[in-house]
């Protein structure tokens, strides 16, 4: 065991040196310098990227939640916790940012979307990793294109399993309209079981398969997004939690956490612990509530989800550009490589593609126009020096930009402005727009410069 750890550290130092080839531009984008190919793919880490759906800031154990997440807590204790990990305020945009390294508005995506998302020549994270010798697999939610044309196997995944659309019923696996969504390798499949268990089962199967190459496993859980329907095994842990919808929500998270624990155990059983990088993040902040009498064939008409997530002490909910909608729990764990601790520097979901591509020494054949930055030097501890950078968000009704500690939010027509100093006012209580018109003008110009590349 000690020999394997020592070897990974040497490999890590070499990879970190190569990772210096990607850096931030003043607008928060990235450029690629020459990266020398590593050659032997067996020396690259397996990457397991886990994403929860609608997990609130205060809905994870290591943030002080009453919700039990022992497996995620252990990963957080052994790895690096991100104090300021930003995403987009809804699901499709965050996932597009992850797989492209670009702000989703570059593709015209500002909210949950269907049909064709990526351009024909888009190089996704999965495609880049496959180019460097990785087996690539997705289990769970896709929601970055509609069948039959725009499905995972078309965008760099060697295998796919889970569901195509937005949110599904956990047992019928149908979309809210009643459409089929469950599939294997992009072909529709009828299967019994709770979605959380099935998604986990597939992840465990992939981990325990015989691997001639390193693997990239993208695990996209359906919870704690509504509609929620959990077995008594999980709801019984929260008998005193009220209202009932908050009980279902908590149960769904503990159920997911148990699945993550099963994946971790599969990694241990397979002897892959010291060469596997775990990353966990939520796709957006928690949702306040939900109710529908018609969706999912009316199955939830008498089960209103009156209370769901908890983003406190952050302001706002899913869909908002306040911190509660876009700042989420996140961690990275790689034993013997990433030191335990926390990272206070702001990072963004679009950073993961340039970071992981740099880690495996992927050399793009063309400019991929990344908006993200290589954050591996921060993650590895090679540097703690944080240079102020720019981050950008766009929804159908609002736009926001962050530069350093300052954040500007405006409506799509540019008529209303909110300005916050997140260092002094992390909970966005004091709008300083009227007091600092010059700074508002500076951030407006910056925002307009970035938005020129949107669709």
Describe this protein with a few key phrases.
455 residues, alpha/beta, 10-stranded mixed β-sheet, 4-stranded antiparallel β-sheet, 11 helices, 19 strands, globular, disordered N terminus
Describe the structure in brief:
By secondary structure, the protein is of the alpha/beta class.
Instruction: List low-pLDDT spans.
Output: 1-42
Q: SSE order in H/E notation?
A: HEEEHEEHHEEEEHEHHEHEEEEHHEEEEH
Average residue-wise pLDDT: 91
Percentage of β-strand residues: 15-25%
Question: What's the count of strands?
Answer: 19
Discrete helix count? 11
User: Mind summarizing the main beta sheet?
Assistant: 10 strands, mixed
Strand order, main sheet: write it out. 9-8-7-6-10-3-11-13-4-14
Quaternary state of this entry equals: single chain
As a percent range, the share of helical residues equals 25-40%
Query: What structural class do helix, strand and pairing data support?
Result: alpha/beta
Overall outline? globular
How far apart the termini lie comes to: 51 Å
Radius of gyration: 21 Å
